[in-house]
């Protein structure tokens, strides 16, 4: 049942909001007229939605940012403080309802990216962002259903699904819930059915049960296999509830492993995630999206499941400053529980960019490198609280600290060619600070329009230090940095790399796409650099440069490699092993040379073009 809502900016206090006037608003949504408000109240009225077969009415809210209170007919029903976790409110008996929902801006450090200047104010309006609906149910009913898939040990045949069902009942209950698990679509394997007892004198009860899965079909990233999934249904009397999940394992040991197999990660950051962005990530040859310092909307998590894209889910914690580790631990446990049903759920980051950027504007010279080392040495971060919070996540690997070199991050953010130095400084950064294995952010910014307005997350001064020209020069520079850093990291066998970011939020930004999804020059450059099998130059500057084949697939391949330098074309046949790096030949390159490289396995042709500059 859809609802009509009104909203008003309010001054938060302990009482139910009573603004002088209300404005019609769209819910779910982020009403721009309330941008910058500390708290926003939302009101809806409706008649009893139940018919003769219904006993319960539930208000379902998803994405209530960030601290929420709900009143019904003047009575406070509940409070909520984790917007990534669904809020389901059982409504009391009444013929008419007036519901007031107050959403407050973060009252602690856990507002994530929405509590920074990295997003425009209109994206951070306190509100009901993702879903708002009414549900009616018979008695008894399953009001909530969650699953946690399990594949234990190294044997994929040893699989199970942990089920948790919340039961509502008006009378004492002694019954059984029927649980069925069936493959979705054309997935091989049979279905399973079992019954779990529920016996209670209370109005609510939680039933926990583990179902073994026979002959399981596993979920894989899109570049490694099929996205097999299962539908879990819980039936109690006349009521039925279902959830879709998938079976897989994820671990990290010098590289991400899915279902026991190495998966070199090529990722993109989403700062304002949409399902369309997940499809765009696949177009860029990415197999992971990092949702930076914020919750993932359910439709985006489902899109990751559908498209076979791994999900790096951050805790909403960004920027310098201490935080309450107990609060962080509670949120981490709830975040883990919320996203565990998604087979794409692959890892969790805890504290994003915990120190201020310390090297902006430094160049590549000897003195600049000394200054970089000095500033990095002075940068300090005590990771004890982040490590403690990370230990609360038990379903997927974690990266407690994501930040710049110098603080021993678990995931490094490296911006040579943008915040400091040149893209060619990347090898020095990696060796000097022992980073470059897990790179949680790299890239450069660019204009998205010829005459941009101020854009959140875009450093115009930084841009102008590197670019002397308009739109074309700006996008060409970004493409060059993204390409060189991506190819260098892949040549170095970095197991997990993520470009920052996929799409702009304004007229300019770090995105490879403009805000409307239009491709910048860097999008094609990244798609080429992220090809699983690729051929690149070891360096695109004058000198003796290797032609290197990168093969990030688990099977060996017979490849034909071709290169053309100023019209002089040559070709060679090579057999490469799994996850191989092979030097094919060496070219003596001079300024102004044009080089075209191509590699094919007989089915797919991948091409790379270079112009050699000083």
Automatic annotation (TrEMBL):
Family annotation (InterPro entries): Beta-gal/glucu_dom_sf, Galactose-bd-like_sf, GH, GH2_Domain-Containing, Ig-like_fold, Ig-like_GH2
Entry keyword Hydrolase: yes
Organism for this UniProt entry: Haloarcula mannanilytica
A single GO molecular function term of this UniProt record: hydrolase activity, hydrolyzing O-glycosyl compounds
Region (Disordered), start-end ranges: 1-30
Domain Glycoside hydrolase family 2 immunoglobulin-like beta-sandwich: 144-248
A Pfam family recorded for this sequence: Glyco_hydro_2
UniProt-recorded name of the protein: Glycoside hydrolase family 2 immunoglobulin-like beta-sandwich domain-containing protein
GO process annotations (BP): carbohydrate metabolic process
Keyword Hydrolase: yes
Superkingdom, natural source: Archaea
Keywords in alphabetical order: Glycosidase, Hydrolase
């Amino acid at each position: 049942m859809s609802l009509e809502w009104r909203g008003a900016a309010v001054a938060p206090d302990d009482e139910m909001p009573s603004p002088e006037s209300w404005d019609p608003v769209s819910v779910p949504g982020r009403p721009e007229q309330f941008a910058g408000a500390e708290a926003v109240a939302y009101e809806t009225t409706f008649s009893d939605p139940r018919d003769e077969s219904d006993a319960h009415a539930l208000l379902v809210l998803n994405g209530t940012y960030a601290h929420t209170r709900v009143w019904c007919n003047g009575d406070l029903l509940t409070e909520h403080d984790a917007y990534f976790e669904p809020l389901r409110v059982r409504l009391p008996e009444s013929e008419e309802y007036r519901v007031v929902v107050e959403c407050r801006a973060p009252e602690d450090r856990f507002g994530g990216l929405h509590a920074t200047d990295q997003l425009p104010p209109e994206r951070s309006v306190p509100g009901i962002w993702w879903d708002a609906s009414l549900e009616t149910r018979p008695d008894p009913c399953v009001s909530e259903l969650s699953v946690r898939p399990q594949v234990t040990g190294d044997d994929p045949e040893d699989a199970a699904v942990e089920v948790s069902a919340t039961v509502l009942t008006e009378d004492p209950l002694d019954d059984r819930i029927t649980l069925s698990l069936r493959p979705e679509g054309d997935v091989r394997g049979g279905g399973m059915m079992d019954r779990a007892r529920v016996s209670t004198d209370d109005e609510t009860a939680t039933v926990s049960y583990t179902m073994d899965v026979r002959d399981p079909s596993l979920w894989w990233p899109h570049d490694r296999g099929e996205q097999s999934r299962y539908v879990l249904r819980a039936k109690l009397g006349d009521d039925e509830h279902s959830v879709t999940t998938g079976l897989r394992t994820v671990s990290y040991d010098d590289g991400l492993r899915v279902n026991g197999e190495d998966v070199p990660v090529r990722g993109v950051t989403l700062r304002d995630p949409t399902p369309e962005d997940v499809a765009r990530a696949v177009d860029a040859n990415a197999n992971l999206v990092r949702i930076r310092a914020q919750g993932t909307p359910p439709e985006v998590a489902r899109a990751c499941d559908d498209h076979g894209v791994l999900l790096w889910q951050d805790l909403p914690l960004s920027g310098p400053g201490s935080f309450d580790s107990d609060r962080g631990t509670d949120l981490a446990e709830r975040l883990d529980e919320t996203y565990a049903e998604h087979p794409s759920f692959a890892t969790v980051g805890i504290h994003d960019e915990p120190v201020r950027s310390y090297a902006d504007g430094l160049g590549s010279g000897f003195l600049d490198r000394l200054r970089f080392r000095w500033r990095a040495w002075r940068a300090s971060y005590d990771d004890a609280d982040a490590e403690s919070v990370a230990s609360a996540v038990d379903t997927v690997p974690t990266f407690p600290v994501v930040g710049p070199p110098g603080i021993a991050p678990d995931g490094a953010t490296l911006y040579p060619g943008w915040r400091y130095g040149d893209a060619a400084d990347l090898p020095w950064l990696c060796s000097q600070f022992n980073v470059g294995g897990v790179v949680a952010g790299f890239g450069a910014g660019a204009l998205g329009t010829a005459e941009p307005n101020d854009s959140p997350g875009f450093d115009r001064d930084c841009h102008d230090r590197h670019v002397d020209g308009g739109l074309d020069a700006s996008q060409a520079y970004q493409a060059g940095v993204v390409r060189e850093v991506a190819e260098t990291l892949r040549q170095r066998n970095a197991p997990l790399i993520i470009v920052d970011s996929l799409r702009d939020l304004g007229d300019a930004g770090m995105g490879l796409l403009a805000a409307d999804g239009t491709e910048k020059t860097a999008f094609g450059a990244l798609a080429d650099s992220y090809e699983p099998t690729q051929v690149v130059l070891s360096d695109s500057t004058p000198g003796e440069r290797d032609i290197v084949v990168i093969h990030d697939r688990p099977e060996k391949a017979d490849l034909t490699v071709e290169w053309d330098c100023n019209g002089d074309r040559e070709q060679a046949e090579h057999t490469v092993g799994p996850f191989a790096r092979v030097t094919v030949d060496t070219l003596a390159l001079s300024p102004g040379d044009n080089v075209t490289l191509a590699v094919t396995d007989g089915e797919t042709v991948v091409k790379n073009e270079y112009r050699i500059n000083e």
